[in-house]
Amino acid sequence: MRLSRIYGAWSLVAIFAAAQAIVWTLANGRRDLLVAAVTGNVLFVAIWAAMTPFLFKAVARYPVRQHVAGFASAFAIFFVGTNAIVRLPFVFTRGWSWFGRVLLGALSEYVVPASLAFAALVAIGHWLASKRDVAPTHVSIADRGQTFRVPVEAIHWIQAEDNYVLIHTPARTYTARERISDLEGRLHHTRFARVHRSTIVNLSLISAVKPLSHGDYEVVLSCGTSVRGSRSRRAVLDRLR
User: Fold this and answer.
1) Which of 56, 67, 165, 173 shows the greatest Cβ crowding within 10 Å of its Cβ?
2) Which ranges in the chain belong to alpha helices (H)?
3) Tally of CB atoms within 10 A around 238
4) Under 8 Å CB-to-CB from 172, ≥6 apart: which residues?
């Protein structure tokens, strides 16, 4: 899922949270707390929004059933940490006694809804990861005002140049204004691998991998192209064994 969609969804939640804070303060006659209540609610939503992409990546990498304790620990640290961070600035004016009392009250009050929200995000991340396991047969490439439906098996390798990506196929090279990380997310991980921060290759076309200096390596494709792979992405070699 693209970051724009994630943050768009959380923006709607932030609007609802701000409205809820306004209604609560007005209904309870606490206009003096209006700004603090709205700011606190929106800040909480912003923190959850920033965490969501990392949680989705973790769910895709670590199967939930095998890492239940890890995800539970991550939630506990995140839940306690965010509640503490949001209230920490008030320590200087209200003291540590107030901080501890309010923090414990907030943790006991919000632990259930926060747990349900975290579990829902884990479930969404698991669903997105399962969708990605279905290998696409084509990808849509926008090139110079036209959209091409390119068969994935026709893609030999992909190269990043500034704000563009070059998709190399036997017929032609497509130029698209897109980040290589976004295009990588639309390709199946069992068929393509990012061997360098600016290079993605078709795994089925790799004919040789040659070591270079400093842990880097050269990837030779059956089409005759050679690209450089970085040491930090050597895990791609495990797929070839």
Assistant:
1) 165
2) 3-27, 34-61, 68-87, 91-132, 180-185
3) 8
4) none
Please give the structure tokens belonging to residue 76: 């506990």
Do residues 183 and 165 touch, judged by C-beta distance below 8 A?
yes
Partners of 191 in the β-ladder: none
Backbone Cα Rg of the chain: 24
* 8 A C-beta contact, residue 199 and residue 155: no
Burial of 58 (0-12, 13-18, 19+ CB in 10 A): middle
CA 136 from centre of chain:
20
Reading the chain (241 residues) residue by residue, the pLDDT tens digits are 567 788 888 999 999 999 998 998 999 888 888 888 888 889 999 999 999 999 998 888 787 888 899 999 999 999 999 999 888 888 888 899 989 999 999 999 999 999 999 999 999 988 887 776 666 788 899 998 899 999 999 999 999 998 899 999 999 999 999 999 889 888 887 789 999 999 999 999 999 988 888 888 899 999 999 999 888 887 766 655 5
Q: How far is the C-alpha of 205 from the C-alpha of 239, rounded, in Å? A: 13
Region for 29 from its dihedrals, namely left if φ exceeds 0, alpha if ψ lies in -120 to 50, beta otherwise: left
Residue 192 phi, psi (nearest 5): -135, 150
